[in-house]
Amino acid sequence: VQLVESGGGLVQPGGSLRLSCAASGFTFGSSVMSWYRQTPGKEREFVAAISIVSGRTNFADSVKGRFTIFRDNAKNTVYLQMNSLKPEDTAVYYCNALWIAKNYWGQGTQVTVSS
Questions:
Q1: Which residue, among 23, 1, 33, 13, has the nearest Cα to 82 in the 3D structure?
Q2: Which of 21, 34, 39, 102 can bridge 95 by disulfide, Cβ–Cβ 3.0-4.6 Å?
Q3: Dihedral of CA 25/31/35/40: which sign?
Q4: Could you read off the pLDDT tens digit of each residue along the chain, which spans 115 residues?
Q5: Nearest to residue 93, comparing CAs of 102, 106, 104, 74?
Q6: What are the angstrom distances between the C-alpha of 10 and each of 4, 53, 112, 115?
């Protein structure tokens, strides 16, 4: 299983970024894909999830209305569209795949929101 994140970077408050997670090595169509984030000294926290089969989504309260998650089944890729970014969104963002009751993680991509 391989999850490769991309799209992180530095953005000003109020700006937008789109993260991508390219998946391989498992049956993408039967997985649940999620994004988590982590800052130094804190536990990794849930951000958003999508069921690849149903398309149903779930979001942390802190990002509702600002972030969206969607997938491209043809590319085995899940995206996190982040709008109206705040400094408190600064973190390393990790892609997660839940497949056959096992969790898999990507290497993470840094998102920094700062003026």
A1: 13
A2: 21
A3: negative
A4: 999 999 999 999 999 999 999 999 999 888 999 999 999 999 999 999 999 999 999 999 999 999 999 999 999 999 999 999 999 999 999 999 999 999 999 999 999 999 9
A5: 106
A6: 19, 33, 5, 9
